[in-house]
């Protein structure tokens, strides 16, 4: 049996973590930068997310915190809030992570993150998801 390629490992990880949201991001790149879509599969998901040492919950906590702290990545933050819920984070845990950002990234970053979470939670509620 051949070892799993970075690309295949990344596709599998992205599907597990982000579900349809991740697939939509990749599909949106197909007509403008298909090579970049491959890089997204291979590096972040095939190499980093697939490493031992942290579970997916912990990786999503770190990702949500980092994206919120950046303050300029709302679409990606929403994708990773969805991903956090997909891998077992609770709404309360996500809200607490975002509130923590007020201390280290400032109130505007925390507010933007909380509003991103509110949007994700509303969309999930509209779909009948917790």
Mean pLDDT: 93
> What structural category arises from helix and sheet content?
mainly alpha
Identify low-pLDDT runs: none
Radius of gyration: 15 Å
Strand content: under 5%
In this structure, how is the largest beta sheet organized?
Answer: none
**Shape annotation:** globular
Terminal-residue CA separation: 39 Å
Q: How many β strands by DSSP? A: 0
How many alpha or pi helices? 6
User: From N to C, what is the helix and strand string?
Assistant: HHHHHH
Percent helix, as a range, is over 70%
Structural features, described:
It contains six helices and no strands. The chain is mainly α.
Structure keywords:
mainly alpha; 78% helix; 6 helices; 130 residues
């Amino acid at each position: 049996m051949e070892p799993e390629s970075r690309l295949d490992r990344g596709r599998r990880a992205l599907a597990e973590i982000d579900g349809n949201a991740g697939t939509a991001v990749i599909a949106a790149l197909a007509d403008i930068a298909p090579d970049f879509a491959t890089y997204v599969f291979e590096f972040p998901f095939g190499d980093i997310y697939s490493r031992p040492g942290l579970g997916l919950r912990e990786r999503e906590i770190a990702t949500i915190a980092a994206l919120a702290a950046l303050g300029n990545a709302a679409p990606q933050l929403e994708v990773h809030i969805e991903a956090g819920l997909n891998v077992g984070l609770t709404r309360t845990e996500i809200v607490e992570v975002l509130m923590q950002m007020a201390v280290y990234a400032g109130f505007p970053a925390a507010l933007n993150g909380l509003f991103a979470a509110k949007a994700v939670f509303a969309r999930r509620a509209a779909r009948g998801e917790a």
